[in-house]
Specification:
Distance between the termini: 56 Å
Strand order of the largest sheet: 1-2
Oligomer: single chain
Strand content: under 5%
Length: 759
């Protein structure tokens, strides 16, 4: 791949002294014929993040340029708002002042009719804003910002064109085919290009982890700080109790202070300032960081009115039409910003996170909707009845005579009544049977993280409230929190974040490592089991991490499994390989005592209703069979063929499916998979996926999609298995232990079933 016929010249990268790790300052970059633009690459983080990854995810040159162009909508917002303030005669518009048309009008009844031009002031009056200094100041500020954005769009156009050339000439990917290539395929071509051309990195061999570290350098720090509860996003408020508050504005300020703003801890985009790596002056550095946070908080407080006005205008113009078209859309839920950071694996790209949480949207919505208040249900039914009755009468009168609409506020009443009926949407379906424990298991399969105290308490309101912190209403996220953000953010920075200055300094000193050819990264992102493993997820002696050093909720272990599955050609380091090998042995051992995969698939009548998945692919069926399994076989049930299904747990069911999955379609079609997470005991030709494999081998696009589905299902099964195993991989015994002890381990992982539902 990418075999260039001629090597015409080499050009030295300019200005690398400030933007590249040691060894890359004097790096030579090959510039083959037709690719003279490569020497413009000045930052390798930017190269991998923006040039390679974002260009692929945003579907190429045309889509990116149109997105950039329409980001200039500030001009429209400012112009339209100024027009509404200065150019509209509201007394005429609201008919508070009569208008008498003296011109020739054919219909005398139209003489007093108000037209749109009547409500607009003349041009001279509209443009007479010299006396209003406040509006002039806002217009000047908006104009300066818009000109800055325009210059940035022009520069991006030139950069995107060079990126386009790189994809076409170097990676051999045409723009009309870009959407058909997965990120893994683009990444493989980039690694091959580096191996052949020694393109732009000091290391001879470029690994998948190197690329991920470049793209996710700062995001891995953010994930780690949320995991260690370092950032002040949990607020204790009167009456409301524990509230999670993390908005785009607050997150932007965190990143500005820590990573790339003036006075930040990083001296450039790849290197932590050396003084923060030494422990001698930690108190002085904490005071310095505290002053930076104070100044940033005061700046936010000073700019609060301007930001608040912009937030209100943007929310109004963005969501008014959505509310009119779909009033129930604000009653829907979305993953909160905090939830995305809390649930994110180390080294998980944006599209991987988006896809995983997207698959978990329906199960989580179903779980949240399973909680209803009987009192609110009664109130909602009556409100809907009264509102519907009045609305029905108004609609009938309007149909009978359209002049009813001319009555003052009648249209407003119809709109308000319609919205009221839509809001009264918490009337539960009387035919719905709910099982919180089972639904929460479905949620776990996709979000991969669940606190231990959720187990057996899925029907508790406390558990539901904690899930709601991750899965919020859109109205709460977009309207309430984002509008309050300009007011709340300064106080969080000044009174909460400043108090954590010393902890932040210690965190970056203790959890920053330098990687050759990559720069400084968060040590958690290395997924080092020995350094950051959680003892409750490992055997004794596998980890040296203290409580301060270990990642919470098994994030190191789950992140390692996720990255290994998503990047099957990556060779993990020794400690990680040992962990994977032990997990493989444990799964294989538990699978021998668990039910067969064929039996699971044939005896899972609840999987369809629980998953509500209409796709019905092999990967979905495997996952659904495990999710439905605890309810079906907890005490041993009789199958359709009159065989008694023995009692088993989700852990043993997941182990059985994982063992068979290792020899299924995914393992057979994955190109160049150099290591398997699971043992192989069945030939691919004898698996249930043999027929599917023969059908899709000739289609690259469908094969890649199927591989991605099986990879996601495999990771979901690992998450279920690792959570459901009560020893949490920490009390592993040797395979040579007697069968009696193993049965105790398996029986101890039986999840507590809900007794309050109607499963």
């Amino acid at each position: 791949m990418a075999n260039f016929e001629a090597y015409q010249e080499y050009q030295r990268i300019d200005d690398y002294e400030e933007d590249s790790p040691p060894g890359e300052e004097d790096l030579l970059v090959h510039v083959p014929e037709g690719l003279k633009s490569w020497h413009h690459i000045k930052n390798l983080d930017n190269f991998f993040t923006r040039i390679i990854y974002h260009f692929h995810q945003k579907n190429g040159f045309a889509c990116m340029m149109f997105s950039e162009f329409f980001e200039l909508q500030l001009l429209f917002v400012v112009t339209f708002t100024t027009f509404l303030v200065n150019c509209v005669e509201y007394d005429v518009l609201f008919a508070n002042r009569a208008v008498n048309h003296t011109g020739p009008i054919q219909n005398p009844l139209d003489r007093n009719k108000v037209t749109l031009p009547d409500a607009i002031l003349p041009t001279q009056e509209c443009t007479a804003i010299q006396e209003n200094s406040w509006i002039i100041f806002l217009l000047i500020m908006a104009a300066i910002f818009w000109i800055y954005r325009l210059i940035k769009v022009i520069c991006n156009f030139l950069n995107y064109w060079e990126i386009r050339q790189f994809y076409i000439k170097a990676l051999k990917i045409r723009m009309d085919e870009l959407c058909n290539y997965t990120w893994q395929e683009v990444q493989d071509r980039l690694i091959s290009l580096q191996r052949e051309q020694q393109m732009c990195i000091h290391k001879k061999e470029l690994t998948e982890l190197d690329i991920y570290h470049r793209i996710l350098r700062f995001k891995n720090y953010m994930v780690a700080m949320i995991n260690k509860s370092l950032l002040p996003v949990h607020l204790q408020l009167p009456l409301l109790g524990n509230v999670v508050f993390l908005t785009q504005g607050l997150k932007y300020n965190f990143e500005l202070i820590l990573f790339w703003g003036p006075g930040s801890l990083f001296q450039n985009k790849w290197n932590l300032h050396p003084k923060y790596k030494r422990s001698g002056n930690r108190l002085e550095l904490a005071q310095q960081l505290s002053r930076v946070i104070l100044l940033m908080g005061l700046a936010n407080l000073l700019l609060c009115p301007f930001i608040l006005v912009w937030q209100v205008l943007y929310a109004f113009f963005s969501y008014t039409e959505v509310i009119r078209r779909e009033p129930g859309s604000l009653g829907a839920r979305r993953w909160s910003l905090y939830g995305r950071l809390y649930l994110r694996h180390f080294n998980e790209l944006d599209h991987e996170l988006h896809g995983r949480l997207g698959r978990g949207y329906k199960p989580t919505s179903k779980y949240m909707n399973s909680f209803t208040s009987p009192l609110l249900t009664v109130i909602a039914k009556n409100i809907a009845f009264f509102s519907g009755s009045v609305l029905a009468v108004l609609i009938v009168l309007t149909v009978y005579d359209e002049d009813v609409l001319t009555v003052q506020h009648i249209l407003t009443a119809i709109t308000v009544l319609g919205v009221t009926i839509t809001i009264a949407s918490f009337i539960p379906d009387e035919h719905m049977a709910w099982c919180p424990e089972q639904l929460l298991q479905c949620v776990l399969a996709h979000i991969h993280y669940m606190p231990d105290h959720w187990r057996g308490n899925a029907n508790k309101s406390e558990t539901r409230d904690e899930v709601a912190q991750l899965f919020q209403y859109k109205a709460q996220v977009f309207i309430l929190e984002e509008l309050l953000s300009p007011i709340v953010t300064p106080f969080i920075l000044i009174f909460l974040l400043r108090n954590k200055s010393l902890e932040i300094i210690d965190f970056f000193r203790n959890f920053t490592v330098e990687v050759v050819g990559v720069g400084d990264i968060c040590s958690f992102a290395q997924m080092d089991i020995r350094r950051h493993g959680n003892p409750t997820w490992l055997s004794e002696g596998q980890t040296e991490a203290s409580v301060y050093q270990q990642a919470e909720n098994g994030k190191t272990e789950l992140s390692l499994m996720h990255f290994t599955i998503k990047n099957p050609r990556w060779q993990p380091p020794q400690e990680s390989s040992v962990f994977i090998s032990h997990l493989k042995e444990k799964v294989h051992h538990d699978a021998q005592a668990g039910p067969s995969t064929q039996l699971l698939l044939s005896e899972a009548p609840l999987c369809t209703s629980l998953q509500s998945n209409e796709s019905g692919t092999g990967a979905d069926n495997l996952l659904a069979s495990v999710l439905a399994h605890p309810v079906i076989t907890a005490s041993g049930l009789q199958g359709r063929d009159h065989r008694l299904i023995p009692p088993s747990t989700a852990a043993s069911a997941a182990a059985s499916v994982l063992a068979s999955l290792s020899t299924s379609q995914l393992a057979h079609t994955s190109r160049g998979r150099s290591h398997g997470l699971l043992p192989s005991s069945i030939h691919p030709e004898t698996t249930m996926y043999h027929s599917e494999r023969t059908v899709i081998d000739d289609s690259r696009v469908r094969s890649n999609a199927l591989q991605s589905e099986f990879a996601s299902a495999e990771m979901s099964l690992h998450a279920i298995y690792m959570h459901e195993t009560t020893v949490h991989l920490g009390g592993w015994q040797e395979v040579e232990e007697d069968e009696e002890d193993d049965q105790e381990i398996n029986s101890g992982s039986t999840p507590k079933q809900d007794t309050g539902g109607s499963c």
